[in-house]
Prior knowledge:
- The protein is α+β, with helices and mostly antiparallel strands.
- It is built from 2 helices and 20 strands.
- It is elongated and about 100 Å long.
Amino acid sequence: MFRSLHVAATGMTAQETKLDTIANNLANANTTGFKRQEADFEDLLYQNLRPPTANAAGGAAPSGTQVGSGARVVSTSRAFSQGPIQQTGNPLDVAIEGNGFLAVTRREGEIAYTRAGALKVDAQGRMVTSDGLAVEPPITVPADATQIAISADGIVTATQPGQRQPTQLGQLQLVTFPNPNGLSGLGHNLYDATAASGEPLAGMPGADGRGTFLQGALEGSNVEVVTEMIALVRTQRAYEINSKVVSAADEMMRNATQVR
């Protein structure tokens, strides 16, 4: 059996995964805070038909003979580059400029992390995400607050009737990781810390390499539609070429059978 049939099959499988990644990027081109993914390939094991040799008497085979066994997707990494800042005018919207994630408490009590800063106030006055997950540390907004301000370093203040000076309600923190690519995507604009990401490092925005907040704005997806379309065409062509290898190998096997 031709080895090329298996090799081409691994290439087609790898390109399918690449296409899935591109499709997900394009589907989230307008998702707040979304970070595009990239499929990383690696070649598979090689069979050494003749190892390279060298000796003083000559008769050396300096290059040897190796036959590869295909390719596979080894990982899907995320590009955490800054997405475009979109002005909304909503005082509870905050865009993260630079490194860092907002920490939120999931319904199971676990902590997750997000770049989507479309915050709301729930029935208990807590600052929550669009899915109703409370920010960590928790911040409660008075029901009679007439104006809310969020500074670049995350300090949240509210103006109440009869008060001349705004009241400080708390401070939004940003969390960084030694290896953001080690985060596990949970969907709903959320990430989960893993052993590969390292321990979360929470602190004040603008300090220790963390980014800052911009009130009244949101960070858009960093997906470039034109770039993804180019990658889509390249992936389609690579899949097509691998399928032609299967057809060519099948034709060669048919010819060999007829000769016999």
